[in-house]
């Protein structure tokens, strides 16, 4: 029996590969266009590293006039969860990442290179596996788990490299007649690749991020089709990225050691491999030592975390671009209002070693991002978050939308807008004092330099009776606070105090802080004049009086 007959026995019904080669035309794209894909398993969970990859995938495709695909790799059906695909589609959408092709819901997809779900491509993989069998480049392997275990034990005892290769590959050279007989007798089997590689030879490869790398050749006869008829990841990605016209596989560092195998598979199929870019693992600083950010230990490893915390998607994406290219930060500083689509990401400038994920930096980026939103946007985004995660805040905001908008508009829309909100979950504690019933329950007043109660009451009393007038414009308002300062022995100007500190008890800032803390309980707030205008005459007077009479 020849290989062709054996192949027909194994896969009697599959098509010739020429059928698929014609069915999926070469893409007609501008020179240099990137065709990229994010290829997660449908576990419903997206790791921050996966999001990082898809931000890069999407960005490169977009900036070169290429295509970004979402392909679902569900050949390991043990790991699947219900709605695993739609959860991935939705999580990406939360980050404004909408694939040009691929899965768009649990069951729907768009694009002509599909199916984009691997389990629906079974006969395609089998066609390519059959093609290899016909050429003697793949074969059925009948090893039982016990036999594999026996091989492993022998290798271990002899201190030899483990695996299914060379002389250890028991069914590699089984005559086709014997194989056919076993198959006819119903002996279970899988399909293995017949590697021609040698461990003592090296292959060189140029990775778009890591540069030139060198590895021993692959010599393992890896499984390409499993007992359930589905392919392994290695084989599926080769077939898919070929037929889908992927130009650059961007994936995590953990795959780089599979490069020799993947290139060998492409060669065996006589296909041109795509380029590869292996992104550095995102690390976490754990008490001074770096380790991989982990799904088990770090809540921020799951992208759902950012949504739950109310960290805007844009902040996370900008932070990830920061990690991707160190040129992003200066670009953003020089172009504060440009869309990130205008930033040119350079894959060869990406860091080779693992970037440390820095939450403080992310929140800082986020403060800047939010500072550019207008009050209405902040209102809507906070309300949307609060409706899901904080009922009290949702009520506070929706009970009086006009007032909430005024509150959120304090010190906004100016050259230097306020930068105190990093995430929607911050908003409640930041605006709460603007609401009388909340303020009335607050007991901690953060007084600073002036913290003697009698002195404070004296200042407030004087302010209320002889200086305060809600109708004052900002200049008049501040002039009065300066006058008030002078009256109590504080310098009108900070500078005057700094030149002759012995002449004064303090300066105007100490006095305005007293008023600020009495009105808000906080020493650090946005512009006090604006706060008072929004609180309104009656509420300001009530707060000042209540304090005096305490
Ligand atoms: N499904 C693979 C994973 O687990 C995809 C790797 C790739 O992008 O090729 O990440």
- Physical arrangement of strands within the biggest beta sheet: 1-2-3-4
Proportion of residues in helical segments: 40-55%
Q: Average pLDDT, to the nearest integer?
A: 96
CATH top level assignment of the domain at 3-15 and 122-279: Alpha Beta
CATH fold-level assignment of the domain at 3-15 and 122-279? Rossmann fold
Bound small molecules, by name, code or SMILES, are: glutamic acid
Commentary on this structure:
With 550 residues, the chain is an alpha/beta fold. Among the domains are: 3-15 and 122-279, HUPs (Rossmann fold); 375-434, no CATH class; 453-548, Arc Repressor Mutant, subunit A, CATH 1.10.10. 45% of the residues lie in helices and 11% in strands. It has 24 helices and 15 strands. It has helices at 3-10, 17-23, 48-64, 84-94, 122-134, 145-157, 176-184, 233-243, 259-268, 304-309, 313-324, 328-334, 359-371, 375-389, 391-399, 401-409, 427-431, 436-439, 453-466, 474-487, 494-499, 508-520, 528-535, 537-548, and strands spanning 35-38, 67-70, 101-103, 109-110, 138-141, 190-193, 202-207, 211-216, 223-225, 248-252, 275-279, 283-286, 289-292, 490-491, 506-507. The strands form six sheets. A four-stranded mixed sheet has the order 1-2-3-4, with helices on one face. Helix 11 (313-324) packs across helix 13 and helix 14 (375-389) packs antiparallel against helix 15. The longest helix has 17 residues, at 48-64. The chain starts with a helix and ends with a helix. Glutamic acid (GLU) binds at residues 39-41, 73, 233, 237, 249, 251, 255.
